[in-house]
Amino acid sequence: MNKQDFLNGFTATFNSTTDKVYFSPGRINLIGEHTDYNGGHVFPCAISRGTYGAFKIRDDNQIKLYSENVPSTGILSFDKDDLKFDKKYKWSNYLRGMILEMSKLSGQTFTGFDLYLSGDLPDGAGLSSSASIEMLMGTILNEEFHLNIEPIEIVKAGKRVENNYIGVNTGIMDQFAVEMGKKNQATFLDTNTMEYKYAPISLGNNIILIMNTNKPHELVNSKYNERRAQCEKALELIRKKVNIDSLGDLSVDEFDRLTSLINDEVLIKRARHAVFENQRTIMAKKTLEEGNLIEFGKLVNASHISLQFDYDVSAPELDFLVNEAWKSDKVLGSRMIGGGFGGCAIAIIDKDAVKDLEHSIGSSYKDKFGYAADFYEAQIVDGPHAI
Ligand code: GAF
Fold it and tell me: Ligand 1 in contact with 338 (CB < 6 A)?
């Protein structure tokens, strides 16, 4: 992104100048999928694709938003106190919700401002464009209005926006991964205790390749909420006999002994994914730290199989990309990431083999599905900051 071009866009749009530009990353997740609302571990990292915002405080009460990604909206203007959900311009709700939450957290209302946005995260691709924009807004308000709010509180505010304002029952992983991101490190978070540690991403000659199915998401939110409800139901049944707080409390052996309490094939599969994936994530952090990349790759592969068959959140397009990646002996591991039903997969691959793989998988994908997949190398970066 060229900062000067971006600032020129701000000036041309709002007829005013600023030099304040912030960046907020998206995220990938190495492993630990659908564990964050089950009291389990996650192992994500922030990536160099994300959302940019140029900002200037106004001296009136108007909030004015413009996004290069949705130019058809034009400049969206509203009073600083008019923060109700906007049914027409849905993209603005991540910002409205965050303004509301940051205002509650700081106990102050903000003056008006101009915000010019642009993002290079593909929409709905499972790379957390929504958390990226939420953490961007939270960080800008925190810095520019000198609120001194702790990053973890901004993370929680973003989760409240998703849960209460947007209406998706997501866990905390995405906002945490974005806000707490560290260059070349993955964040190992226990979503039960909220304790976290960083682990260096030392992959030798390998890189992380993001493979975007470009499959449009449909009905994603309702299926996401359904999976969550199924895990809650399984937990409720187990808790009739065993005192645990979440599925994340169970080891694999304990779970195997308790399945008769659930007594429903679908619920057993959902809960099994949550329990096994949590244990895989703990193992994956250990193997990565030990430099045991072969074992790490196997855990990544096992995660995909579990998401495909037990949790049933994959899609033929994701399975195809992952299965093709598995065929290459240059790929250590590959799996779908994020909520699922479309979006992206990752492959951990020898960097010298990337071009060939992109070419071969790309052309077979297009032959099969009639449209192209996209490939990007993941660069692991810091959380939101001024640039
Ligand atoms: C989505 C949610 F927002 C996260 O909280 C997480 O549950 C993820 O799906 C699945 O691991 O990205």
Answer: yes
